[in-house]
Design goal:
Layout (H helix, E strand, L loop, with lengths): L2 E2 L14 E5 L4 H12 L3 E6 L9 E4 L18 E5 L11 H22 L6 E9 L10 E2 L14 H9 L6 E9 L1 E2 L5 H11 L12 E2 L1 E2 L1 H11 L11 E5 L5 E2 H11 L10 H11 L4 H4 L3 E2 L4 H4 L8 H8 L4
Parallel strand pairs: 2-3, 2-5, 3-4, 5-6, 6-8, 7-14, 8-12, 9-11
Antiparallel strand pairs: 1-4, 10-13
Length: 326
């Protein structure tokens, strides 16, 4: 087993601390999640394809598709949780090859984790399995919640990736199991948010296409709070097993999002970007135009009854916190 151990940050974990193993913990969300849990006194381990000596957590090398010595990270005397965020970034051209890689990077890693967990003497206490609200593809005016059926067949780079990803989670050996369908996380350090801010500052912050596509979103702090609740760490929130949508109660249209960004960044009105122009730009930037031209109105019918309350429910509140010096 290839393992690196470094000095952790935050308080020393107590005897009752949760051990949390994060697959895909070196990605943007994985890093902020690991830091958040460590600051709260929990033990954090990361499954990674490449050891990063700069990260202050136990790290276990894996290939993301087969069971190996890394399974030792899941064998702990106390409470153990697994969070699976592993998967190739979606910001790529929607070619058959790229879509196949998007799908296999998620399905293979999830299948490996499911197989590894079956070798344990007892079930994991918690398992948070990443998914995405893009599973509904381009949902138009449908109001999507946890119980909304999936489209058939749906967009191959969205439904065609997320549906088998969730299916690979079946049979997971864990007492509490959460499939977290996450919307756009407004992380200012994430590539998508950086690109939006840069374009807006450059005077290109107009709506995309007709501007009516829905944008479901969530503040990073609220996303972290939902994950903590799924790990049983919030005494005021009890999430049931199953699917949970991680999105604010107030989705916005694309035009509203861009207006709010311009207002926050003190930029004047910008002309919209027609769909053909966006498609051409996507070729140059090697990305998928569907990321901007499609949308979905996704909210949770689970979080409210479970006792969860958003700290940043509206877009203006979120942007004021995320872009304070703009």
């Amino acid at each position: 087993m290839s393992r690196a151990t470094t000095t952790g940050q935050g308080p020393q974990p107590g005897e009752d601390a949760l051990t949390v193993v994060i697959a895909g913990g070196t990605g943007a969300l994985g890093r902020i999640l690991a830091a958040d849990l460590a600051r709260r006194g929990h033990r954090v381990g990361i499954l990674t394809r490449r050891i990063d000596p700069a990260l202050p957590y136990d790290q276990y090398e894996w290939d993301g598709k087969s069971v190996g010595d890394w399974v030792a990270a899941l064998r702990n005397p106390g409470r153990t949780a697994l969070i699976n965020l592993a998967g190739k970034l979606v910001d790529c051209r929607p070619t058959d090859r790229n879509i196949a890689e998007l799908r296999s990077s998620r399905v293979d890693s999830t299948a490996a984790l499911v197989a590894a967990a079956k070798t344990l003497d007892r079930p994991l206490d918690y398992w948070v399995q990443a998914s995405t609200t893009a599973i509904w593809g381009d949902a138009g005016e449908i109001r999507c919640t946890e119980s909304t059926p999936l489209p058939r067949p749906g967009l191959p780079q969205m439904t065609g990736v997320a549906q088998p990803w969730e299916a690979a989670f079946e049979g997971a050996n864990a007492t509490h199991r959460t499939i977290l369908r996450t919307s756009i996380v407004l992380d200012p350090d994430a590539p998508a948010m950086k690109r939006l801010v840069a374009l807006t500052k450059a005077g290109l912050g107009g709506s995309v296409g007709n501007g009516r596509q829905w944008v479901s979103w969530i503040h990073p702090e609220d996303w972290l709070a939902i994950v903590r609740a799924a790990l049983g760490l919030d005494p005021h929130v009890t999430l049931p097993n199953g699917i949970v949508v991680a999105a604010t109660d107030f989705p916005v249209r694309n035009a509203e999002l861009m207006t709010a960004l311009r207002r926050r960044l003190h930029r004047p009105w910008s002309p919209p970007t027609p769909a053909p122009v966006l498609a051409l730009g996507a070729v140059i930037l090697r990305t998928d135009p569907a990321l901007g031209l499609t949308g979905r109105h996704a909210t949770s019918e689970v979080l409210g009854p479970a006792g969860f309350r958003f700290r940043y429910p509206t877009l203006d509140e979120a942007l004021a916190d995320l872009l304070p010096d703009s």
